[in-house]
Amino acid sequence: MKQRIEEVKKNFLRQELASPDLLEKFRLQFLVKKGEINSLFEEFKKLGKEEKKEVGQLLNNLKKEAQEKYDQAKTLLGSGSVQKEKEEDYSLPGKSVGQGSRHPLSLVQNKMITIFKEMGFSISEGPEIEDDWHNFSALNFPENHPARDMQDTFFIEKDISLRTHTSSVQVRVMENCAPPIRTISPGRVYRNEAISARSNSFFHQIEGLYIDKGVSFADLKQTLFLFVQQFFGEETKVRFRPSYFPFTEPSAEMDIYLGTDSEEDYRLTKGTGWLEILGCGMVDVNVLENCGIDAATYSGFAFGMGVERIAMFQYGIKDIRTLFENDKRFLEQFKALG
Ligand code: DAH
After folding, report:
1. What pLDDT was estimated at residue 159?
2. Residue 297 needs a FRET pair 20 to 30 A away by CA distance; which of 38, 47, 219, 253 works?
3. Helix 104-118 with 217-232: angle, nearest 10 deg
4. Which of 161, 167, 211 has the most ligand 1 atoms within 8 A of CB, as the residue to mutate?
5. Is the pTM of this model over 0.90?
6. CA 233: distance to chain centroid?
7. What are the residue boundaries of the structural domains of the chain, listed by start?
């Protein structure tokens, strides 16, 4: 009996339990009711008292050791360390991480930039943290203008704020470059407004500036008209309405005609058929002088438009906040467009 126990022990110690199959084979051979160890216990019952004393301990140890070996191998396989090494197939193709797509705001902004670039406009940028001079004073904002109010502007400290519009870049360009100037300035701007489906505390604008000798309002109209035809289509109708901005004189707003046929167009245009897309005007003489440009020799026009507004109109986006949530399901809808 002792010898049999030794043999079984030797036998199971030799086994390598490196896969689930081998593990199962081990269990069936040694640990189940009809396995080798249990059959030794059956024989054990038939032994005499003295012999039982001698063999009992050995048999119990044998069972314990077999069970331990099995449990250890099982844990190891379960944690994957043995299995991984054996089963990794390095010849399989890699897993795809998926391809991203352009954000709708980038799509719209890039299209705008391309159109103005083709007309000969350069691109200029300025800081998002701006001083009072570039954001307000140089642009002819009176001391008590409501736009300077705490309610609209995020102040960082006295006279330093997050820029409320990209018109601040106009000032920087005029201060640093001699005319002729033909530039657009895309960028992010900030307003301290209640966040809703129609307004967010930050958004994007594209500012335009053209300064040269003899620039007139007719040039302004023609430039913007050309832009609209290229961006929205040849047939697009536009109109200019008189308006007011501190930094332009005269000032205007430009609308494009959508009509009121669809419910959506009616809602967007508040029943008028016209959608406002930008503000513009002839650069105020005070602004030219503030920026060191001789207003007796040079004149110019400026314009500014909101990118979100146009993107929302173009793609039928109802809530501005969806543009900033980075929800993949929303963004993937624009995959085909760029
Ligand atoms: N800065 C204006 C705004 O944020 C937009 C604007 C209007 C820019 C008229 C201009 C302009 O350059 O001439 O609402």
Report:
1. 92
2. 253
3. 130
4. 167
5. no
6. 29
7. 2-81, 104-337
What is the predicted pLDDT for the residue at 121? 98
CATH architecture under which domain 104-337 falls? 2-Layer Sandwich (3.30)
Q: Which amino acid residue places its CA nearest to atom 7 of ligand 1?
A: 279
Q: What is the pLDDT of residues 196-248, one digit of tens each?
A: 988 999 999 999 999 999 999 999 999 999 999 999 999 999 999 999 999 99
In the block, tokens 């109708």 appear at: 237
Please tell me the predicted confidence (pLDDT) of residue 198.
Answer: 86
Q: What is the arithmetic mean of pLDDT over 66-94?
A: 79
User: What does the alpha-carbon distance between residue 163 and residue 187 come to, in Å, rounded to a whole number?
Assistant: 10
- Whole-number Å distance between alpha carbons of 144 and 148: 7
* CA 147 to ligand 1 center in whole angstroms: 12
Pocket probe for ligand 1: among 224, 303, 307, 309, the residue whose CB has the most ligand atoms within 8 Å is: 303
**SS3 letters for 53-76?**
HHHHHHHHHHHHHHHHHHHHHHHH
